[in-house]
Amino acid sequence: MENRAYPLFVGLFTLVLGSALVACLWWFSGGAQDTTRYLIISSGSVSGLNPQAAVRYRGVRVGKVIDVDLRDTREVYIQIRVDSDIPVTQGTRARIGVQGLTGQGFVMLDDDGRDGAPPKRLPGSGIPMIAMEEGPAGMGAAEGAQALIGRLQRTTERIDRLLSDENIDRLDKTLQHLATSSANLEKALEQSAALAQDMRRFASPENAERLAGTLESVRAMSSKLSPAVDEFRTAVARVNAAGTRIDKLGGDVQASLTADTLPRMNQLLLELQTNTQQLSRVLDEVERSPQLLLLGKQQQAPGPGETRP
């Protein structure tokens, strides 16, 4: 009995576990939600769009892609599953977007609300269809990836120009200048700290009292020097007056010398010159006739034709 019960329990456990796995798969696949399947037909490239990709309605995730199939060389059939409460109408348009830098594609749905009629169905299958937005607004994933690659390429070129050897040398020099400036700034800060410390010592209460006492002494000395300064100013005024008088007296003396003394001195010099000439003649006569000192000057005999006086 026991040998038969063991395989029975194993079989029941396997059935329960398999049922649980199926239920989980059904739950995670969206079977527990009320969803609607739609078909999108694209005539362009859908590179980057894979099954299980997200479907977003105005930016909000509302479903996923369940199949991407190439029916012929011109059209790609994209089957999506969307929540049934999403208002999909004939005015709803789909386009392929690119997510981030990975290039993973997703389906974007949007509706301007102009046409509220139910979407058309594919003949033969009855699957409702969503029109693919064509033109620049409906750019496919490949075009979006190419645009992204173009932007990345331009960004890379700019980074290359930014990190060129010349710019790196400039950056190196700038960093060296900054290091030098930092060292100088550090020295200046140290000197400022020392100066601030000296200022603190200078501004100490003892120095403040000493400075106050010095200022009081200077004030008292200034008050004492004020009379002396007044007297000095008076003496200077007197000296100026005496100088004026001396200048006047000098002018009077100069005028007196010019008008009276100098003519007299000139006359005296003339008389002295005359007397000197007379004395010189007397000395010459004495030298020629020394007897003149004893006999005096004798009258000479009259010459021929002269009479004695």
Automatic annotation (TrEMBL):
Database matches in InterPro entries: Mce/MlaD
Record carries keyword Transmembrane: yes
Entry-linked Pfam families: MlaD (PF02470)
Location of the Mce/MlaD domain: 39-110
Transmembrane segment boundaries: 6-28
Keywords in alphabetical order: Membrane, Transmembrane, Transmembrane helix
Tree of life domain: Bacteria
PANTHER family from the UniProt entry: BLL5892 PROTEIN (PTHR36698), MCE_MLAD DOMAIN-CONTAINING PROTEIN (PTHR36698:SF2)
The protein's name: MlaD family protein
Organism expressing this protein natively: Uliginosibacterium paludis
